């Protein structure tokens, strides 16, 4: 999938080659609601940019569970690109407008009973979303206000900082193994970079979904706060990160993340082929169908 009007990430100049963002504008004090100045892309994601503080708020609003469908992923990548290209925007807070759910991860129906062409397009969109988010020059803060399995967890892991509502009913993790599927290498790399090898190895093999307090203990999320304080805290963290000169922070981020990003860029087509081969197997299709049935049964 090539997003309309957007140069694929691998063709864009590397982050250190791009112009750095303008000097900080006076920041809104933490805790105050962000005055929306500009709002766009209103189908599955609501984006509001406060140009005076340089902070955008991105809210997932695709009920019932903010699953990452092809349409959602495309909208997400386009929104990120728009913000990235807007010199007035220096940071983005990512959260959910759906109660109790941050994101349920990849939309499983996109991986069931579809054509090879569809799988290729879908997987390219998943890659695109991650390349844009993990490689973003902006400060990215995840305000995780609900459950966040698999692809939802990847979104949080790809941000610079994660704050989660301290509700033990909310869980987060890369639970792919529970579905009988395997997290791709770049999901794993992102996870390892956050929690370290041992915790990632155990958690990935067990497909663990960690309740918020445990996720905090493991370092999967940086902070827990009462749900009603989540946005205030996110704004305060954002203000702290934006108080540094953009160029130094951006170059440091690039230095820390470049190897992992480059690895996917170098193996993108191979990764798509692997996904198609894997997901097309009848045994994998069966696992996914059974998992969807289990979700439905659990409900009734
Ligand atoms: N995709 C599609 N539909 C979903 C998904 C999903 N990920 N999650 C939930 N739904 C559907 C349910 O089936 C249900 O549908 P319906 O109303 O038609 O019965 C509806 O959304 C609501 O779901 P619940 O009733 O379960 O809602 P709850 O609020 O009780 O629970 C949860 C919400 C906790 C999010 C729960 O739905 C859940 O655990 N979902 C599964 C999440 C999950 O395991 N996601 C993993 C997806 S795979 C992924 O992201 C990475 C894959 C990497 C690729 C590897 C290579 C092959």
TrEMBL record:
GO terms for biological process: fatty acid beta-oxidation. The keyword Lipid metabolism applies. PROSITE patterns: ENOYL_COA_HYDRATASE. GO terms for molecular function: delta(3)-delta(2)-enoyl-CoA isomerase activity. Its EC number is 5.3.3.8. Key enzyme of fatty acid beta-oxidation. Able to isomerize both 3-cis (3Z) and 3-trans (3E) double bonds into the 2-trans (2E) form in a range of enoyl-CoA species, with a preference for (3Z)-enoyl-CoAs over (3E)-enoyl-CoAs. The catalytic efficiency of this enzyme is not affected by the fatty acyl chain length. This is Enoyl-CoA delta isomerase 1, mitochondrial. The lineage of its organism: Eukaryota, Metazoa, Chordata, Craniata, Vertebrata. The gene is Eci1.
């Amino acid at each position: 999938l090539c997003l309309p009007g957007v140069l694929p990430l691998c063709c864009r100049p590397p982050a250190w080659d791009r112009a750095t963002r303008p000097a900080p504008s006076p920041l809104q004090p933490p805790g105050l609601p962000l005055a929306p100045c500009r709002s766009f892309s209103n189908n599955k994601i609501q984006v509001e940019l406060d140009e005076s503080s340089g902070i955008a708020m991105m809210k997932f609003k695709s009920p019932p569970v903010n699953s990452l469908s092809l349409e959602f992923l495309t909208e997400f990548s386009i929104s990120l690109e728009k913000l990235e290209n807007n010199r007035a925007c220096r940071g983005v807070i990512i959260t959910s407008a759906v109660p109790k759910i941050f994101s349920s991860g990849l939309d499983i129906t996109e991986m069931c009973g579809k054509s090879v062409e569809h799988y290729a397009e879908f997987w390219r969109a998943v890659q695109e979303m991650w390349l844009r988010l993990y490689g973003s020059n902006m400060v990215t803060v995840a305000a995780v206000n609900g459950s966040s399995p698999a692809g939802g967890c990847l979104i949080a892991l790809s941000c610079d900082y994660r704050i989660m509502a301290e509700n033990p009913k909310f869980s987060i993790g890369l639970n792919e193994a529970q579905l009988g599927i395997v997290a791709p290498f770049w999901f794993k790399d992102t996870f390892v970079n956050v929690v370290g090898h041992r915790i990632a190895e155990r958690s990935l093999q067990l497909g663990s979904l960690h309740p918020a307090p445990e996720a905090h203990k493991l370092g999967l999320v940086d902070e827990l706060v009462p749900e009603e304080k989540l946005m205030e805290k996110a704004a305060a963290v954002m203000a702290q990160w934006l108080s540094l000169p953009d160029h130094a922070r951006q170059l440091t981020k690039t230095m820390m993340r470049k190897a992992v990003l480059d690895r996917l860029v170098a193996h993108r087509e191979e990764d798509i082929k692997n996904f198609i081969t894997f997901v097309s197997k009848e045994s994998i299709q069966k696992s996914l169908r059974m998992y969807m049935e289990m979700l439905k049964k659990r409900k009734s």
